[in-house]
Amino acid sequence: MNTAYEKMINDLAPKKFSWKGNVWVAFLVLIILTGIYSYVQQLKYGLVITGMRDYALWGIYISNFVFFVAVSLVGSLITAILRLSDVHWSTPLTRIAEIIAVAAIIMAGIAIIIDMGRPDRVLNLFVHGRLQSPIIWDVIVISTYLVLSILFLYFPLLPDFTILSKYFDKNARLTKWYRMLSLNWTGNEKQTKIYSRSIKVLSVLIIPVAFAIHTVTAWLFETTYRPGWDSTNFGPYFVAGAFVAGSSAVIVVMYVLRKTYNLENYITDHHFNLMGKILVMLSLLYLYFNINEYLMPVYKSTEEEATHLRSLFTGEYAWLFWVVIIGGLVLPVIVMLFRSGRKPLPLFIVSLAVMVCAWWKRYLIVIPTLSHPFLPIEGVPETWRHYSPTWMEWAITAATLASALLIITLLVRFLPIIPIHETVEERGLLADQSVNKSL
Amino acid sequence: MEPEKDNQQKSRRTFVEQGLKYGLLTVASGALLAKVFGKSESLDSEKTIEVMSTDGTLMQVPASAVEHAHEKESAYNPREGFPNRKFVMVVDLAKCRNAKKCQSSCNKNHYITGENAWIKIYKMQDSEKSAPYWQPTLCQHCDEPACVKVCPVDATFKRRDGIVLIDNNRCIGCRFCMAACPYSVRVFNWSDPWQGDTVEQSEYTPDYAGVPSQKGTVDKCDFCPHMIDKGELPHCVSACPNDVFSFGDMYEDTVTNGSGQSFKLSKLLKDRAGYRLMESLGTEPSVYYLPPSDRIVDFEEGLQNYTEFQSVDKPQVP
What we know:
The structure holds two protein chains of two kinds.
Chain A (H helix, E strand, L loop, with lengths): L2 H10 L6 H27 L14 H13 L1 H11 L6 H25 L8 H4 L6 H21 L2 H11 L5 H9 L7 H34 L11 H28 L7 H32 L2 H11 L4 H20 L6 H27 L20 H24 L5 H8 L5 H6 L1
Chain B lengths: L1 H27 L1 H15 L3 E5 L5 E5 H11 L13 E6 L8 H9 L10 E5 L8 E5 L8 H5 L5 E3 L5 E3 L9 H5 L6 E2 L8 H4 L17 E2 L5 H5 L5 H5 L5 E5 L4 E4 L4 E3 H7 L15 E4 L8 H5 L15
Parallel strand pairs in B: 3-13
Antiparallel strand pairs in B: 1-2, 3-10, 4-5, 6-7, 8-9, 10-11, 11-12
């Protein structure tokens, strides 16, 4: 066998955590445990432990849910859209994108259950489900997307599992798992044919479903009469924002993994450069939808819209609003327009800012609207006028974010972060057919 | 004119169709009915019941006779409602002086222990130069209810008699209905309601909301079907010292206020230029408002009762 090939497998095979990895996992587990404790309190005492009340009836659980759905969209972008357009530079990023998508969509499902007043009745959604309700549409598309995303992660792994089961010690427990999961992949003609066909079919299928999950999530708000949500712009606005959030998540994760596992040969500066360009394009698109979303109502300034927008531009939420728009959208675009801004470290920092602002952007979409109902807020305690999340609510939300990171971390521990088989093929390392057969 | 005529014909046709349906249903389920009403008859047979005739006079009728009439119409099902009825309410803003008796009576009779009353009296002022007024606001029991539209599990539902109710045994607590309602009338049981043993152990039925309330589910004004069933007016209507509220049946074209005075609904709405809240949204509420013109009460008087951030008369938790 040629040495370049062996070196590559050596580089890419999953590795045990270093002490840093263990500390990281322990840290995540600690956050998750705090969240579980708080959730038990919530089950016991009800949603009264949160900052939500009759007017601020949805809070960070819902905005966090929207964030997860948004991030999960990136799987379809990097793996499906780029794959179908025959773009090959993104191959080393496909696994990362798919892992993020799976982790995010799982946590989106859990986040929405956390928000329910009666999680014990979750099965009612299936027993008594009404197709007329946007929530049922969400249940259908999100579970479809979950299945498609898992398949989309799994199929390209089949050849990699075979490679790994040969690479590791024959009797190791992991080897057995890899062998079982590889479904006897040998790479023969028949298998390859089914394999490439299924991936193509999945790539086509996952795009409309990905658009659907976030469009339907937008419709959860758009189907109400409330100023700030009552907008025909919401579907595309959410989808555009989702691609921004997801791409920045991919950049953040790829930077961290490249550093941790010394993957400079696989995730190169060139990848950062191109991802930076994609993020600029997506951010500009999102900015365009933001202009539509905020400036047209300002022009008309109907009373209800004006009250809502005033609270965003100059009122209660102004500080947060401008940080999110300028710090999470305008400044990043300016930085990334420069070539040096798309170098790994600057791009990592910019993407981190974009991602954090993307989370708060969902907060700004969900919460301010609820504090401006059509009728006055009277006859309830004054504290009900404003929403401020409690520490338990934060703990639970932090735990969902930590769980997503933990899922990503564990998948990274046991799966090759860079698709081995595809990289081998693309780099032509195995031009020698006899070696290919020996796989 | 044409479309209106068309509509009338259509509604007459549905009316006839429905009549036939009920007729058949009655014949088919006669035996079952005897069983259902046999039980309630034994409870009420000694009582007399006040009934209102179409011209608005009230008469005392033995309860058994009333039960008998029901029996001929159809079985009562909390999801279907009272057959051949369509309940409406009229709120006369010219009479409201924020006495808040409607609210305290509602809170008391529905055992509301939280801070969230189901009926709220808002201090309204439509524009800077126009006069302020008090607006009692309860569930509007819309004919095109936004809340029912979005419910994922059919927990909140619209009945044939116009009432919108919640099945608290089915509600999953997603609060989408609360987000959808433009009138902000829905409240949530954020914690255990602690209503005391008697209430908590009562048998639950959607037509007596709040008995008992359930943690993690949505509550709201139920238009008091439990009172209608007894031939009485909803709690807010009879508690109001100023006869602000009138309640009745649209098919009978009559509404009755707390003092027992009855009015012809169509005439009242015409004479006083009645309107509904946020008509433009197309929700078709069942609650009509009469504008606060030629007021018999002073707006200022209500200010002494006005507590911006507090609901009144919370019953003490034992």
